[in-house]
Amino acid sequence: QIQLVESGGGLVQAGGSLRLSCAASARTVSTYHLGWFRQAPGKAREFVSAISWNGGNTEYGDSVKGRFTISRDNAKNTGYLQMDSLKPEDTAVYYCAVDREVWFGVSKSGNRYEYWGQGTPVTVSS
């Protein structure tokens, strides 16, 4: 069983930055793709970003391109999401997840991700 724990969320003013972390309990996570998703109140879950197991391939949702940066440190079994130029519409609970089907490319579909963290809330005030 793989456990993922997000941290780094909080309250920030518009234009500010936050860095989310996703710590994994198992070293095998370093061989899986990692994704970030978010869900705002009353809205569907939204793809934010994903990174391949070796960090060589990344994907971003259209709403965060140019503002968010995904990365990972496999030696620490940890993934990161640097969020800059935050907007009130970025307010949501952010979740990290891992996809073990690495023979496929990085996916934007939440259905591909098997293990999920409990989420960390991000609130951006205007």
Described by strand count, sense and barrel closure, the largest sheet is: 7 strands, mixed
Strand content bin: over 45%
Total DSSP E strands? 11
Q: Gap between N and C termini, in Å?
A: 40 Å
Order of helices and strands: EEEEEEEEEEE
Estimated radius of gyration: 13 Å
Structural class: mainly beta
Could you characterize the architecture of this molecule?
The chain has 126 residues and is an all-beta fold. The chain is 0% helix and 47% strand. The chain contains no helices and eleven strands. It has strands at 4-7, 10-13, 18-24, 33-39, 46-51, 58-60, 68-73, 78-83, 92-99, 115-116, 120-125. A hairpin with a 6-residue loop joins strand 5 and strand 6. It is globular.
